[in-house]
Amino acid sequence: MPSLSNLQVIFLGIIATELMLFFVLDGADFGAGMATFFVGDDLAKRQQIMKVTGPVWGGNETWAVTAFAVMFAAYPGWYSALTSGYYPLIFLMLFFLIFRGVAFDYRNQWHSRHYNQFWDWALFVGSLMPPFLLGIVFSSTVSGVPIRNGFVYAGMGDILTPFSLLGGILVVLLSLNVGLARVIKKVKKDVAVQLTVALKRTTWALYLAVGVFAVLLPFNTRFFTNRPGIVSLLLLLLIVFLGVETWAILRQRQRLAFWLSVGTMASFIYTIFLGVFPTLIVGRTPGTSVTALSATSGPVSLLWTAWLFGFTIILMVGLQATAYHLINKYYHEPASPMV
């Protein structure tokens, strides 16, 4: 039986890591957008939250774009099955991402309370729905969907299961967790105190969601049959990160709490991707799954992709590092140029 080449395994790791970075970085932006809900109609407080996110949110989405670009080049069978089988959910996700992007620029542009409130709600909903939909998609791919000839033929009833919906809720809570933890480091004390209460409630909700997810995992996936050791370790890390984060929040260690929230998100994302490795999309019928071997490109395409990725990743990391350096250096409330 043929095995994966080193380059094929490396590209799987690259895709998983880029998506993990997307869920961490843009997840923090989603969480910041949802965090505006916890300060009510106070415009000044909303503006503080948005100043933390505004300069970097567009660049953070680049990690998802490059992940799907690498997927298209290195694993076209995975890309085609995913995008065609989940087209309605991906279309909805793109719609809400556009809605969120427009809301950044349109909110508070007119002297109309109803107009501004509409775009504030657009920002909230546009931040809530993408992680929810992505959580549904990836939870569905590991629990099993109808596949024929390498393509997903799934109706909404096959995709929207209790397990996949729980996955969507869990990604929303993880995004809110990392977003609140990041925002609290930057805003004024009165807003930080208000958002800390929301962060505490989010962590307790995460305990419940993670517990239910862990219970349902053996009944809905092959994680503990396929890779019991790594899955158990990642779930343990997730719980440890969450537990220590709760302690850091109570001790008002905001910076530590943020990095622990990052570890919590990363543990969950790697659990999803490594739990079924080297399967990419689990088929409901035995022998129909999309695997790394069946979905991969040829060796020449993989080699060209490696060269192109090697050049672009240097540029991406440099731009991202510069953006975060600038916002950390120049962001000061209340008179910040980082608007």
TrEMBL record:
InterPro entries: Cyt-d_oxidase_su2
GO cellular component annotations of the record: cytochrome complex; plasma membrane
GO molecular function, one term: electron transfer activity
Pfam family, one: Cyt_bd_oxida_II
Subcellular localization: Cell membrane
Gene Ontology process terms (BP): aerobic electron transport chain
Membrane topology designation: Multi-pass membrane protein
Keywords per UniProt: Cell membrane, Membrane, Transmembrane, Transmembrane helix
Family listed: Belongs to the cytochrome ubiquinol oxidase subunit 2 family.
Entry-linked NCBIfam families: cydB (TIGR00203)
PANTHER family: CYTOCHROME BD2 SUBUNIT II
Designated name of the protein: Cytochrome D ubiquinol oxidase subunit II
Species classification: Bacteria, Bacillati, Bacillota, Bacilli, Lactobacillales
